[in-house]
Batch of 4 targets.
Target 1
Amino acid sequence: MDDLIPVIKRARDGDAAAVDQVLRRLHPILESFFISRIGRRPEVSDLTQNSLLRVHRGIQDLRKPGSLKSFAMKGAVYELQDYYRGRYTVKEMLYDAADPPLHATDPTYAGDRVDVEKALKSLSPKARKIIELREYGYKYAEIADMVDTTEAAVKMQVKRAFDRMRDLLGGLMICLNIPW
Amino acid sequence: MSQSPEHIIFADEWSDDRIASVRAALRDDPELRTAVRRWIALSSAVGDDLRRDLPTSEALVLYALRDTPIDLSEDESRLLDEARRNVESAIENHPAVRHILDRIRADADDFTRCWNEAAASGHPARVDRAPVPSRSGLRLISPRWIAAAAAVVVLAVSTMLLFGPDAAVETGRTTWTADAGTFLPVELPDGTNLRLAGPATLSYADDEPRNVDLTGSAFFNVTPGDTRFSITTSTATVEVLGTSFGVLSDARSTEVTLVDGSLRLAAPDGRSVRLEPGHRSRVTVAGGPDVPGRVDLTDVLRWTGLFVFRDTPLTDVVRTLSEEYDIRIDVSDDLKDETLTGTFAQEQGVVEILRVISAALSADLEMSDDRTHFTLQR
């Protein structure tokens, strides 16, 4: 990519054509990166565009032309972190303002706060770690990769935590047939 | 297929059908609802606790990469110094943080791999592009064509519209107004096309044509640009890079339906959602935005005066046009599996619309003398 150095210098000086050339060279690298991290999802296009926008906005402040790689990399990794943190949780997927089966005004909701405190204390460190990663925005397969185990083992930890919570707080569970 | 509460908790992908089924199950079973709600409360408490202790994404990334040879700006150095203690405290209190930092470093390594592959090959890295729907489908109109079509519509109505009596120009600001019951196509200086559905008003500062204020409703086809395009209504803000979508707003709510691209819908208190194509969300004075839900674009965007088809089966396209124009349209068997993607203005008229469709399908269009019966066939 050394051939890009003179182009980056011109881009840094405000040459619009040079900026365009730099962005075009970065586009497939960014796209390949995001596909590698999150798979072939529609969000790849958005993440790529956002990253290019960061480069476009910041290229004139680049101190050294050779820093483009780290500059682009930081922007891409920032975008990826925002993406993970912006993923919907189960709570958000099930929430419906017009029809809130999980709404706090549900008459059976009272007392949950105390229950949560009790249940939090019962979590094992492993289970807490997995739930933290899940709430941060990672999927179970990603969590398994991060903690160097299998997806099944990760889910087993979650199931144990759920069962422990259920036993601790009481309440009957009924297995349902939910036709898809 | 039998389901248990664990299947709800373990779900990674949520289709609209799944969401509807789970909501129904939760409504019908109080014990299931209690268990799932408690689990959600527990995991949300864990998540809230973590998020409270973590800095911004930028600070976290800078901390993770602090020992790698990357250049930091003055602002980044300051951000890292300010965040260092917070992150180190978070590492002690939350077992997940080390893994998040390791993952960030793995992300950075993967970027370096992609970069080096591009450098080694002497041309841009091979890209396995995000998949395009593989069904037999027909994209009638590219975004550029839509812009051209919109320009044709503008010209067909009046070439004076761009600077004519419907645009009020005060010093440094331009305002467009559509009367009740009318549609007004507008092209902005950056090439963005929109269609006001009256009563509606759109205004912008002349030096910031990509930041517009909207009262009422409009359909936007935003040209990709160097800066984000933002629309501000009385209840919400919409931000996009380049995309097509509809905004329905009044004094109490703003509803956004996304056709192509992506956008973020934000309430005044900062809560926001990201929409995917084919989804709709709403912000009201009472709160929001709602979790986006999938909608039938053709049906939901009829108020724009446009027919919006996206991978729509030809049979559904034909049904829509038949109902709208009170005509009969027959389709030969070899066309029935075709799908269409395109946007038409209702004022184009059914004959012109069907001529475009038949040309794109390489089909023949026959029509009766009274233009109430049409046939598409190869």
Target 2
Amino acid sequence: MRLIFLIFSAMGLALAMGVVLSKNLVRAALCLVGFFFIVACQFVLLEAEFMAAMQVLVYIGAVAILLLFGIMLTRNILGDETTGASAITKAFGGLLSLGLLLVLFAGITNQKIRDPREGSIEYDYAKATGKPLADPGRTAWPDTASRLPVEKIASDDDDETPVAKKKLTSNQARKAAIDNMGLMVGTEMMTRFVIAFEVAGLLLTVALVGAVVLARHAGAEEPPPGKNRGKTAAGSVASLNGASSSSDPIPSEHAGGAAL
Amino acid sequence: MTNDIPLTWFLYFAAAAFSIGLLGVLVRRNAIAVLMAIEIMLNAANINLIAFWRYVPPPPGEGLNSGVLLALFVITIAAAEVAVGIGLILVCYRRWKAADVDQYDTLAG
């Protein structure tokens, strides 16, 4: 398992570097598609297969295609990346991201398992007498390799009730949360996260309408369909007669007035 | 499981991917390449969320799938953001005939 993770991580980081460093935009987009797939593989390693499927569907199926269409529609006439960043910008960017990397690595490596109630009287008393604290609270991240264990009880095999109706004791609930993730995500989306769900729907609608409004061609004013139909025919005949009969010394003003 | 992947390995991978994304945002001059680097950063944050969901017991009041749902909402927001971003880049492209962030400087001093 660890070897698989290391291979996937190496490929993922190489693909991310490919996105950032490649001069050809299409190659960068394809490296991004590969990175999305590696992230989906990581989700499978984390036993969240539902999220892996969603990742492939939404990111590779929609976001990457949208980015490729954007690349197609905004090609530089002279070629890709006509202006690169200056050397100072590159150095500054490299320094900043390296600094962030080091800070994050230091934080992950040196996470201290420190009880947040350290200064209080109960803590000192418990430490002095050796008795455990009443509420153990939450400790830091598990530093050894251990996932939340999900044991299989022997009686799970005979249990015929469907998942949604099971009385959720803690082990059954945890097992259902991982094995039947689609169902549990749907249930939670409708009960605990319903407001977030509706707000996300609203945001998607706003984004859709906004993108359509933005991408409409500038200045394409369609005449209202019903109003001008009769007028246009009469107007065109009248303008033809007017243009042919009158020899305008200033044709542009007339044309401008007619257009308005 | 004795051969299980430690939690910190996932966090290292996510941190490295996030830093690479940050490098892309700062260094690349094409607007769509900047969007791609932002997507890398969002995916790294998602890996973080799912890793903590799997490895760390949830607080007493929370549901069992909160990490998964939070990552799902991040995916939703990222997709909407890319759509609007591409629309904006198209408008800017029509105006300046280039998708170069150095040229989008009308508001600059």
Target 3
Amino acid sequence: MTATDAHADPLSRIPEALRDPRDGFGSASLGKIGMWIFLVTDCMTFSGLLLAYGILRAGTPHWPAASSWLGIPLTAWNTFVLIVSSVMMVLAFSACQEGNRKRTALFLGLTMLGGLMFLGGQAVEYTDLIRHGFVLYGNKIPGMTPAAQSTFFVVTSFHGCHVFTGVVYLGVMLVNTLRGKYDGGNSNSIEIAGLFWHFVDLIWILVFTFVYLIPVAS
Amino acid sequence: MSEAAHPHPSAAHQPHSRKEYFAVFGALCVLTALEIGVYYTHISQGLMISALILLALAKAGAVALFFMHLKLETRVLRIVVFSPPALVAIYALVLILENSWRFMTSL
């Protein structure tokens, strides 16, 4: 980008890095860029839901303390399970880069297992809550704020749907791996699947903090 | 663009070692334990909220930078990824504080 060309070539005004999106994104594949952009939009969706929860909570007189109706230990365990599954995912990607089909498949399977364990934990949690009258919509518990119920279920189940989708997505990746599609260090698709899975973990880290841990005024 | 055809150049950029991944995992465990610890400690609400949010952001950042390889990507991609959530955070702060104030002053 030379100063003398500024009038002759208007493109020279644009910084080098931004002239061609592929150059700005370095060696990232189009698929990876696409997944990142999708994840940013998904982040916006979760932000909308979490923001609604935050605003409702800030403006409500009697918001129930999470510890009175949620099991923090079970959820802390679920958080740990999801973090471990993220490690499994990154090890799967590492194995794929090394061209090790069996290891890739193993770690993909372990990642999926973590996801299924998380979903199981949520199922246990939901069953317990519903049995005690803490439901999506309704006034079964005296003194309970209905907004707390609806925001809880909408936020956590929307995330749960992402975990489920992730498990299915990884299942497809696993089948493809076993068929040899990602042999020889062809790890781009695995990396992209990993991005989705890590995103799911990341969102849960934030949901766990904002829904379960942030305390009400005492 | 067929991704199955040949190994992609992005695999060539020096990836994190397995050691680094486990180090990040260790950090995530410590941060989670800290979060739970803060939760059960008797400190003021403001302090607890600040601490929990900072810890959560640190964990999210660790996952994004190391597991999602953002640290290895170009600055342009990092800006593309981090800008919208940063704007949301500002928006959230304003909206939640406003609602909280509105509620407090209506008592």
Target 4
Amino acid sequence: MTVGLGHFLALGAVLFSIGLYGALVKRNAIVILMSIELMFNAVNVTLVAFSRFITPTLLTGQVFAIFIITVAAAEAAVGLAIIISVYRHRETVDTGQFNLLKW
Amino acid sequence: MNDPVLAVAFYVMAAITILPALAVVLTRNIIHAAVFLVASFGGVAGIFVVLSADFLAAVQLLVYAGAIAVLIIFAIMLTQNASRGSQPNEQRWPALIISAAMLVVLLGVLFQTAWPTSALAPLETTTASLGNLLLNQYVLPFEVVSVLLVAAMIGAIVLSRED
């Protein structure tokens, strides 16, 4: 049973859909961030799979995945700082309660 | 990749990735969700090893499982008083339909496309080649990402100050 490009792409697609469901459904802002990190991981798996199967000697997909990991780390840091700052003022991280912009 | 050991490794690592990811979005306990997230990151690192991306697997464990997961757990601890855990909102069924539709479309497209796969063997060790690429061909994104990291650090420090 050979494992080909389709298997890895399917894994990336499933992981992305799971992350998408979590980002849409969850109320806690930190869990939404966790689901977004799942989506980033799915994209990384897809990129590295493409790099491995289509151009195995060029490492373009892996370089791109390194940049995505870096940017995801920066985004997680800033996002969690924002959540902590909001928690200090509003005493909650329930996104159902963040309704100041609601008309 | 017709090695049966690689096939078994792929399915094991895929299970370690997908099942904790499902648990992250389905559990009501936020600490459990954070621990399942770490397991999922470990599974993705295993997938990178199956794909012969050795340096990337190490970076995944260091940055994601080591730093981002710890950051998330810190944030959970700092906001623990107010959170009743990881509750779902009222849009479970529309979100399930949308995610399932997205999955079906993605799988349909990827299995219909004739990918131009190459039968070359991948590089054995990627670290030297990645370093070469990062400093020669991709030096501009490399420097820009450095500036981005400094900006993110300053932003995070300023945002979480007590004033």
